[in-house]
Amino acid sequence: MTAHASEATPALQMADIRKVYRMGDNEVVALDHASLTVGADEIVALVGPSGSGKTTLCSIAGGILSATSGTVTVGTEEISGYGDKELTTFRQNQVGFVFQSVNLVPFLNARENLLVVDELGRREGKPARDRADRLLDELGLADRAKNLPSQLSGGQKQRVAIGRALMNEPRLVLFDEPTSALDTELGGQVMELIQSEMKARGTAAIVVTHDERITEYCDRTVRITDGVLAA
Amino acid sequence: MRLAIKELIRQPGRFVTAAIILTLIAILLMFLGGLLDGLIRSATGAVRAQQADAIVYSEDAQASFLRSRIEPDVRASIEAIDGVEEVGGLGVVQLGARVPGNGPRDLANVGVWGYELAPDGVPEPPGPGEAWADEVLKADGVEIGDELLVGPSRSPLVIVGWVEDTSFNGQGGLWADVDTWRAVLSENRPDAVLADGVFQSLVVRSSGGDAVAASINGAVDGVEALTIDDAIDAIPGVTEQQTTFNQILGVTVVIALVVIALFFALLTVERTALYGVLKAIGARSRTIFAGLVTQAVVLTLIAACIAGAAVVVLDLLIPPGAIPLYISASRIVTSTVLLLVAAVIGSAFSLRRVLRVDPASALGG
Ligand SMILES: Nc1ncnc2c1ncn2[C@@H]1O[C@H](COP(=O)(O)OP(=O)(O)OP(=O)(O)O)[C@@H](O)[C@H]1O
Ligand SMILES: [Mg+2]
User: Do B280 and A112 touch (CB under 8 A)?
Assistant: First the structure.
């Protein structure tokens, strides 16, 4: 694990990113010359209509997809040229994801869903267990630690997913519509939680959303239409 | 890996069907293997028990006791060979025996042996008219002290003790001195009478070990000397049985492999979304694949353990001698190892699918 760079280093720098999906003869330009910088502890809201390229942008920032062209730098690590193996290691250490649909491991309880990050990645053992307990506590899930996902409410599952995204102490967390499955009140609570967790850690985040109200919890809003970013 | 074990423990329902099928296949594998071992044992016991370096038949006998005949002068020339320490006559006559208390048509199949050098586990020859009986004859109701009436002439033989694993061609051995055997032979098989001093075969103990077989073949005309191992293989039907059974066992292992391959291929398809998430949060394909193989191996081990216990119980339940089933630890272990190899190869068919899972699949709506 590389030490976090100084405060001044942005968490994410995307320069001139293009992403073209090829399906047979068809080409879909999902991102077109997108450039975006996210400060070290900045929370950026990414707003745009369906199909505008929000998920694609997050995937590229988090090393799940490779861009067709352009450069991506997370902290001091330029990942644009990475192969599958390097990207896997990068994901283990540098980024956290909260997916559009809650994707917890169904046969693991809340605590184990957090620990799976450690098991698949750094294998720290005790420090990781302590961190998981602290996160569950902060997320108000201390008394739900032994519950399976099927025994948790939608908001609780979302909070477990947030905990999982923070387990590897990432530099950047990508939230893909974290509140879309929740009602307005619960969505607000989850966003408050996201905000406080990010600020407490000095971790940067991109929060994808359709909902204008969500942007209030963010430092800045970036709009995307047909793969083109506008501040 | 721990993830894979946890899934097995927490969601056993997903694996029950595969475990049951694998258990049945493992039982089949071990049971058939036990039958093969039992058949081979009951076909070869008397030869295997010989504490000797070579068995000598006449050249045209094709290793058949009944067709073989060795004259005293041949014996003398074998005894004269360098390194030969002891030579003993050995012969058999296969007959039906009336057992006291059994109906007149309920005959026990026996091989009456005349021997000079005691085989492994068989005491020195008993007195005239007496015989050591193989334990498998207990299944026919034979008891110590019984007088069996052997063959059409009802030659009496009194049972004076038990020996084990001395069957031949599936017939329980009755071990008598050579004069008693010669008498039984001439009373019941007038066509096969052997004069005093003439034997069907000779067992040879030598200071030079196995090599004595070759020396005898080189020095004496008209005989075929075989090492004990070669003599076992030469018993009519033994290699044929082994080949046939091994083919059946091979097919059974292949079926286990196909079952495992199909089951884990389906499971992998079902889990594509989960694998996508795991990859997105940093799981290597290697880790996921190792988990899959672990599950296949654990499942197979469980199936093999249940099957092993089942065939042992089956072996205890089936009365001895009813069917030639011989369950041994080595048969259970080799069956288990074969199944484990099948498990690893079978689950390996899912490797490509695991590699192809795209972490991006975790992101969809
Ligand atoms: N794997 C893919 N293959 C081909 N085209 C794709 C693929 N993934 C996304 N696209 C296309 O790229 C464009 C951007 O998709 P993306 O998923 O980034 O949109 P989004 O903004 O996240 O939408 P939503 O709000 O509905 O989640 C869309 O036109 C989509 O159809
Ligand atoms: Mg999306």
Answer: no
